[in-house]
Amino acid sequence: MKTSKPRWSGRSERDLFRIKIARSTIHRTGFLILRTVDLKIKDVAFGGKGVGRDNGKAVFIPFTINGERVSAKIVREKKQFAEAELVDLIEVSPHRVRSPCPYFGRCGGCSYQHIDYEHQLALKFRQVHDVLRRIGKLADVPMRPIIPSPSSYRYRNRITVHARDGVVGFFRRESHRLIDIEHCPIAMAEVNRALADLRATPVRDGHYTLRAESGSRVFTQTNDAVADALRDLIARLVPSGQELLVDAYCGAGFFAKKLLEKFQRIIGIDWDKFAIEAARENATTKETYIAGDVEIEVGAVHRTARGRFGSIAPTCEKITLIVDPPAAGLSANLREAIVDLAPATLIYVSCNPATLARDLKELDDKFKIESVTPLDMFPQTAEIEVVVSASCR
Question: Which of 226, 248, 201 is nearest to 379 (CA)?
Answer without folding.
Answer: 226
